[in-house]
Amino acid sequence: IVLTQTPAVHTVSSGQQAVLNCNIERYDGNYINWYKQVPGEAPQYVLRFHYSDTSLRFSSDRFNSKSSSNIDYQFIIKRTQAGDSAVYYCQTWTMTKTSSVLLHLQIILPPPVLTVFPPSSAELQSNTASLVCLSSQSVPFADVSWLAGGSPVSSGISTSTAVQRPDQTYQISSSLTIQTSDWNMDKVYTCKVSLGSQTSEKTIKKSECPTE
């Protein structure tokens, strides 16, 4: 069975309604399962739906499911929250095969809070050192990149998997390995966090950092 889920990436502002669509190639008495997965965790079962169902149970009163036919299904999230940002799977099965398709749901939040930490004095005794960028109050699928002297950096970057905080937003950490000589020459480094067209930046250079 071929499943089609649209749109492949769905972006809404926090508080708005999100509608995820799933179409199955043909109807064989199928149920539709919906799963949610956030970075670093196993998929979570959300609900099961059949087009003829009239009474449903959901894990949240913000969730609903509808069908316009026996092959077209919708998963609806009302009053979206930061914690709703995730990959959602639409799944169905037959006696011989299970099929699934995924979709990214991104909730637009205010710009994340960026903090860039300079190298330690101990690190600066060697030829290389590290800058660390911490992006807080973010969404899980934000992209982190670095600039050095205004030019994109393609190596020496290590970015963590997003970690969910108690407020349902995410924290992402990224480190950049730099040459100590460049740091001492007061080169400007920029941590850039992007989600679609939304971008936040934080710069750092030696002369603007307090001395230990």
From TrEMBL:
<dbReference type="InterPro" id="IPR003597">
    <property type="entry name" value="Ig_C1-set"/>
</dbReference>
<dbReference type="InterPro" id="IPR036179">
    <property type="entry name" value="Ig-like_dom_sf"/>
</dbReference>
<feature type="domain" description="Ig-like">
    <location>
        <begin position="112"/>
        <end position="205"/>
    </location>
</feature>
<protein>
    <recommendedName>
        <fullName>Ig-like domain-containing protein</fullName>
    </recommendedName>
</protein>
<feature type="domain" description="Ig-like">
    <location>
        <begin position="1"/>
        <end position="100"/>
    </location>
</feature>
<dbReference type="Pfam" id="PF07654">
    <property type="entry name" value="C1-set"/>
</dbReference>
<dbReference type="InterPro" id="IPR003599">
    <property type="entry name" value="Ig_sub"/>
</dbReference>
<dbReference type="Pfam" id="PF07686">
    <property type="entry name" value="V-set"/>
</dbReference>
<dbReference type="InterPro" id="IPR013106">
    <property type="entry name" value="Ig_V-set"/>
</dbReference>
<keyword id="KW-1015">Disulfide bond</keyword>
<dbReference type="InterPro" id="IPR013783">
    <property type="entry name" value="Ig-like_fold"/>
</dbReference>
<dbReference type="InterPro" id="IPR007110">
    <property type="entry name" value="Ig-like_dom"/>
</dbReference>
